[in-house]
Amino acid sequence: MATSVDFSYLTALNLPSLNLLKTFSVVAKTLNLTHAAALLHITQGAVSRQMTGLETALGYALFLRQARGLTLTPRGAQLLPAVQQALELMGEALKRVESHPDTLRIKCPTCSMRWLLPRVIQLQNDRPDMQIELTASIAHGVDFSTEQFDAAVVFGRAPDSPRRAQHLFDEVLTPVCTPDFLPRHHEGFDVADLADKTLLHPTRDRRDWLLWLREAGVKGLPSAKSQHFDTLDLAINSALQGYGVAIGDLTLIEDDLQAGRVIAPFPLCVASGASYTLLYPENPTPALKVAIDYLNDQARISREKLSALLSSSHRLVNSN
Fold first, then answer.
1. How sure is the predictor about 81, in pLDDT bands with cuts at 50, 70 and 90?
2. Mind listing the pLDDT tens digit for each residue in 98-123?
3. How many CB atoms lie within 10 A of CB 316?
4. Which residues form the signal peptide (predicted)?
5. CATH architecture of 103-170+276-303
6. Rounded to whole angstroms, what are the CA distances from 272 to 91, 112, 155?
């Protein structure tokens, strides 16, 4: 059954035409009818008539017409920023739709690509009608008013916009390496085995390793050998090649652990207090809603796998 849509609220707004508002913005910028006409490619008379018509429709003057030119009235000056912002937003939306009509753009921190990329590819395989473009960034955040993204995965403390945010998973840190990199004892692995090994740091300040070692009861770094990287992903890739022991997030290396490419040799795992969160604007499109639901479902599966690992062979502590 066809349903009718009530658009009466639009007429109730009693908005002037977009063309008049565009002309107002140009005239307010130039404060000269001749210059405005040249920019708009219409006659000076047409510009004057449009402004007179807009003022009549609004019921108040927007410009003071003086011998030296035009100046904005207080009401005109108050109206101008809102009109300019609305025109800019409409222009950006039109460009975005024109250039990528069927593409969802998702921004994500580089470190999350290990988890996000294979799942996005799987979603596209399941839904050939959806195109998703991932943009990796070392910046942890997004501003939807200035950045042309449909959604973003952000890393850090929980954001302040719970209505537009979905928690994916928490960061849980533990050392990782290739299966044969550390000597295995009858009683398992020991922190002392790290003394002559190269420690791979995903940050310059070494905070992740220091956090884990503190919870393990070790002061300082057990080895003078180290390499520093700008992202966790680079550190994990180096560990995969057997160059050292990296400190990694258990969820991000979930697939590598399952495939046996790396191991988490120590039972101690530390929740850093940071998490990965999916952010999106109000009123997501149907395609974006599909992606949100899919990623939330995948994150739930990952959380369940992490919980099973922690309950079977590892133990979790929360950092203070």
1. very high
2. 655 568 999 999 889 999 999 999 99
3. 18
4. none
5. 3-Layer(aba) Sandwich (3.40)
6. 42, 16, 12
- What's the whole-number average pLDDT of the chain? 87
Specify the domain boundaries for CATH 3.40.190.10 within the chain: 103-170+276-303, 171-273+305-318
Cα(229)–Cα(104) distance, integer angstroms: 30
CATH assignment, 171-273+305-318: 3.40.190.10
- Residue pLDDT, tens place only, 163-188: 688 999 999 999 999 999 988 766 77
The whole-number pLDDT of residue 67 equals: 80
Residue 37 near residue 47 (C-beta atoms within 8 A): yes
The residue type of 296 is N
CATH 3.90.1720.10 given to domain 11-98: no
Rounded distance, CA 227 to CA 198, Å?
A: 7
Angle at 59 between CA 54 and CA 62, to 5 degrees: 55
pTM, two decimal places:
0.66
Residue 3 banded pLDDT, cuts 50, 70, 90? very low
Q: Where are the beta strands (DSSP E) in the chain?
A: 63-66, 69-72, 103-109, 131-137, 151-156, 165-176, 199-201, 226-228, 245-249, 268-279, 315-318
Distance, C-alpha 35 to centroid of its chain: 41
